[in-house]
Amino acid sequence: MPKSNTILYLDGVSVSFDGFRAINNLSLVLDKGEMRAIIGPNGAGKTTMMDIVTGKTRPDAGEVYFDGQVDLTKHDEAEIAMMGIGRKFQKPTVFESHTIEDNLMLALKGPRSIFPALFHRRSAAEARQIDDILGIIRLGDKRDELAANLSHGQKQWLEIGMLLAQDPKLLLVDEPVAGMTDAETEETARLLRDIARDHSVIVVEHDMHFVRELGVKVTCLHEGSVLSEGSLDFVSADERVVEVYLGR
Amino acid sequence: MILTRAIGLTLLLLLGMLSPSNAAEADLRAIIAKFATASNFSATEAVVRELAATGDTAVERPLGALAEGDLYVRKADSLVFIGKAAGGSVELLDPLSGEKSGDAAKSEITKIKVNNTLRRAVRDALGTLTLGAKDPAARIAAADTMFKTPDATNIEPLDAAIASETVASVKALLEQARAASVLVSDRPEADKLAAVALIGGRGDRNALSLLTAVEANSEGAVKDAATAAIANINSTLALWDAGQNIWYGISLGSVLLLAAIGLAITFGVMGVINMAHGEMVMLGAYTTFVVQEVIRNSFPGLFDWSLVIALPLAFSVAALVGLVIERGVIRFLYGRPLETLLATWGVSLILQQAVRTIFGPTNQEVGNPSWMSGSFYIGQLAVTWNRLWILVFALGVFAVLLYVMKRTPWGLQMRAVTANRRMAASMGIRTPWVDALTFALGSGIAGIAGVALSQIDNVSPNLGRGYIIDSFMVVVFGGVGNLWGTLVGAFSLGIVNKFLEPYAGAVLGKIVVLVLIILFIQKRPRGLFALKGRSVEA
Amino acid sequence: MITGRFFAAGADRRIAITIFILLAIAIIVPLLNLAVSPTSAFYVPSYVVALTGKYLCYALLALALDLVWGYCGILSLGHGAFFALGGYAMGMYLMRQIGSRGVYGNPLLPDFMVFLNYGELPWFWYGFDQFWFAAIMVLAVPGLLAFVFGWFAFRSRVTGVYLSIITQAMTYALLLAFFRNDMGFGGNNGLTDFKDILGYNVQADATRSALFAASAVTLALAVFVTWAIVGSKYGKLLMAVRDAESRTRFLGWRAENVKLFAFTVSAVMAGIAGALYVPQVGIINPGEFEPSNSIEVVVWAAVGGRGTIVGPIIGALVVNAGKSWFTGVLPAFWLFALGGLFVAVTLFLPKGIVGMWDSWRGNARALRAASITNPINGEAGTDPAVPPPPKIVRSAARTPGDWSASGPEPQPAE
User: Fold this and answer.
1) How many C-beta atoms lie closer than 10 Å to residue B325's C-beta?
2) Chain A residues within 8 A of C394 when measuring between CB atoms
3) Whole-prediction pTM
């Protein structure tokens, strides 16, 4: 399979923990600019796959390439993040004792070493970027609130905002609408579609309505490998998917 | 028929055992009386030989007194006594029984004079005498003494003893003693070579020092043979040394295991950092002290049982204190390990100071019961009984704990709560009780560790301080949440420590071990037997 | 928004006041000691100068610890080691200054070396006759140890209690090492019998006052530096690492470098504290490496309030004043009191004195501010695109004072 023109390329990836095969010969290709939804039952290896892509877990076997040429298995989390892969956790993880503005400032693309951070002064360009993102995630009026005081859904948005500030080429978004109301879910879908216009995105989600709203190609994982791939209608018509995941 | 014969035989044997001492006493006194009439050294020496020839061990007392110059003759009746200077006068003791039989002024008695020849004669006589002793242990001791102080004059009595010796092991020792004596005699070279070979076969430190002396004082074939034998012994000894180090290491490992095993429960299984763990060990040791005090004052006969009695008490005391700590402090701090660390450190200060206030800051005397004192040898390996018992005890505690954890319902509940507290609670397990009891168990085990450690360490309020860092190192090194890891960790740290000691010294060895562990934790932050997987990452 | 700015301003004002007080006592106390007649009511006796000077060094040590513990969540149980190393560097300078006035009168070798039959000065004692060299070593030795230790520890992601335990092992190993006579640091007895510092008699009142002033000024400087660090983007990053380390990694920050910088800076501060401490107490011995000393520092910071700048200073002063009082009046009870303090602070005062004060004032202010913030929420609700969040679920499980190793880390689970 040609790697050029792919943003993410996984081939034959396996990893096991104490004999349990979390990922089993997984192959997955994401084209540049593509948004992909990943579904699958609990234990299918969705989060582990993200761990592998972001460098948190090393695969036992297989190839993981970013942007067609970078071997991700040779880099750690910080390096991979700097290359342009952003990740949102399943449980929203923001810096709770900082204000929303500071959360975004720490995420803003820029030098990542200690001394520039020590003598950092906020530039007008940075302030403008933060304002823009605050507008997108609709938290402008709360910019000086502590992140700890946000609701669950607002924390999800803040985390997505931090991803935007990072300006990655590829976004890995783990269950972005868990714990959101229907209206918030729709809003998040719209936000992700916006983002997908100029980023590559992988979304992991259980919420089928949300996946349908995204309207993108779907991959169903099961026991660490791809069970089915295609449009949502195709996948949800697949007998095996119905069997292991959707239920009858 | 057979019965009567057996009874008759027994009677004969009994008679045989009784008669000589009775009959001999009069004879002995008659011979001893001859000291009074012996006019010169050679006459005295003849008496000594005559006494020795009786082969009765009772003559040890007068002969020993003679060699010391303590044998006197009373001028009035020419009777022989052992004299002990007491103030201006001399206390007179019976030469055979050693009982007091009067006092005398110095002018009333004359000392039997001795010179070096006579002293040697007495020593030889005594050596020969004990060589014929009934008790094999006495014969072994005699052979040992003769081996260490070889003398050409020993050869003949040794030959005689070898001829009559029936116990093979004693015979071998006698032959070695004879060989040692041959080497300092002027016997022919062939005899000496045989002697070197015999002693070389003994292979211990005494043989080594003897052969070193031989090597220095002889030449030719004997010297060469000695050199070869020394090299041989040295390589054997190096092996024994390694063995001894392993034993010391195992012994230290068992101590570490005892100290750490309770921690493996509280820290390893529950994830609670208990800095007061060492103080639980201390409480166990003090419980032992109190039990021994009570026994000493009220039931002295039970002293050998003191540790057995102390075990359940120490367990209860430490477990109770542990329970109070868990209910009073730790349960408010679950999920906040750093705070737990600080709070339990505070508890440890309070416990230490409390013990200091009650018992005083000095070391307390805790005695070893008879079955824990002394030592024995396996080849060249010195093994002390208390260390051996502590090893057995540590392994026993480990086995019981493993059984409790793996095979009992309580252990199952404990592991369930550790694995998933909420799920366990929803399945009807009373998690607070399991927490409290688990912590009490860990503390109680620390308490019984204290009973064992009181046997080899100073019982002072600081007893626990010395163990806390080591215990944490063992648990962290072995891998948290894994009892087998603790076992392997304790013994490997113990052995590594003891192997480093000869090269680096005790303190530097310990520092090296600490640095190694620090580096090791960098390499494997979750220890030797870490659980691998996603869930333990965060 | 308004409250946030006000708090920031409040915190800054507090720093300014602290620095001002420290600089003021740096001038006033020596004046009251030297220039005022001993019969006057304003006279500060020399022993008070020495004692409070010692406390200021402790305060600096507590502040150093707070930089890593309060702001970065690294509970170091080995900060006493950095303090002692700084102290030894200064002590070596002071030993060399004794010259031939020692008991044995050897112009080159300190007394303990003559006593232990040293033929010549060990190589690592060279240069310590120069103050500038000793001063560099005061910074470099603790800094280098912290750098190397931290480099290994943070790179391999040793965190939480594991880190605490190996820092404790570090100071324990150093304790054992410094107790050895052949280490060349005076063994058991340490370094003592100092005569001069920079040519002035260490026992003289004027020198003691100067040392006191130096301690106060240094502490003021440390407060400023800490405030600058904590207030910078790096400082925010430091707290971000404390609260959600893996989040910072996935944002591209090297969390290990973030921690390493703070740990090294903190160790250097601790070393300076030790260097100021030694001439004021006149002795440095291996006892300073005792793990229990390092843990005591932790309780100072905890009592005052970790994660604040003023807190550890207050904590160090209060606890040590208490210690001096207890050891004078009820010596047997000091350890009970200290032990009780550990338990009480963790159970009842997790945010320390300053933290409690802040949250008490914060609550009062929040009540008053409630009427202002409500309309803003209402306004957001009128926007048709963004429905108001149905219910603001505050994370009740965690309070800002409660950063545990297992808490904020994302726990990926399917």
Assistant:
1) 26
2) 148-149
3) 0.79
Determine, for residues A18 and B531 on separate chains, whether the beta-carbon distance falls below 8 Å: yes
What CA dihedral angle connects C75, C79, C80 and C82, to 10 degrees?
170
Which residues of B are less than 8 Å from A20 in CB distance?
533
- Distance (Å, whole) CA B197 – CA B205: 15
Cβ-based interface (< 8 Å): residues of A facing B: 17-18, 20, 22, 47-48, 51, 56-57
How far apart, in Å, are the Cα atoms of C13 and each of B99, C213, C310, C364? 95, 23, 11, 19
The complex's ipTM works out to 0.89
The pLDDT of residue B292 is 92
What is residue C191's DSSP assignment? E
Position B9 scores a pLDDT of: 53
Closest approach of C371 to chain B, Cα-based (Å): 36
* Predicted pLDDT at B10: 55
Chains that touch B (3 or more CB pairs under 8 A): A, C
Q: What is chain C's pLDDT, residue by residue, as a tens digit (414 residues)?
A: 334 444 455 668 889 999 999 999 999 999 999 988 888 888 989 899 999 999 999 999 999 999 999 999 999 999 999 999 999 999 999 999 998 888 888 888 888 888 888 888 899 999 999 999 999 999 999 999 999 999 988 988 888 888 898 899 899 989 989 998 888 898 888 998 899 999 899 989 999 999 999 999 999 999 999 999 999 999 999 999 999 998 999 999 999 999 999 999 999 999 999 999 999 999 999 999 999 999 999 999 999 998 999 999 999 999 999 999 998 888 888 999 999 999 999 999 888 888 888 888 877 776 666 544 444 443 333 344 434 433 333 333 333 333 333 333 333 333
CB contact under 8 A, B534 and A48: yes
Please name the residue of chain B whose CA is at the shortest distance from the CA of residue A43: B534
Complete domains list, chain C, with CATH = 2-357 (1.10.3470)
Residue C239's nearest CA partner among A97, B169, B74 is A97
Q: Tell me whether residues C391 and A151 touch, CB distance under 8 A.
A: yes
Q: Which residue of A16, A17, A90 to mutate against B (max B Cβ within 10 Å)?
A: A17
Residue B509's Cβ-side half-sphere holds a number of Cα atoms within 13 Å equal to: 15
Fold of the domain spanning A6-246: Rossmann fold (3.40.50)
Residue C9 C-alpha, separation from nearest chain A C-alpha, in angstroms: 14
Q: Any chain C CB within 8 A of the CB of B339? A: yes
Query: How do the domains of chain B map onto residue ranges?
Result: 30-131, 132-218, 241-537
> What are the residue ranges spanned by the domains of chain A?
6-246
Contact between chains at B534 and A20 (C-beta distance less than 8 A)? no
* DSSP letters spanning C315-360: HHHHHHHHHHHHHHH-GGGHHHHHHHHHHHHHHH-TTHHHHHHHHH
CATH class of B241-537: mainly alpha
User: Using CB atoms and an 8 Å cut-off, which of residues 259-278 of chain C contact chain A?
Assistant: 261
Give the residue from B272, B334, B420, B518 with the most C CB atoms within 10 Å of its CB, the best one to mutate.
B518
Candidates C1, C242, C251, partner chain A, best to mutate (most A CBs within 10 A): C251
String of DSSP letters for B402-425: HHHHHHSHHHHHHHHHHH-HHHHH
Pair of tokens at residue B333 = 């701090």
The number of helices, as runs of H, and strands, as runs of E, in chain C is 14, 4
Distance of alpha carbon B351 from alpha carbon B353, whole angstroms: 5
How far is B339 from chain C, CA to nearest CA, in Å?
6
Distance of CA A12 to the CA centre of its chain: 21
Q: Do B533 and A56 touch (CB under 8 A)?
A: no
Lookup: tokens for B58: 């009772």
Closest Cα partner for B524 from C162, C149, C77?
Answer: C162
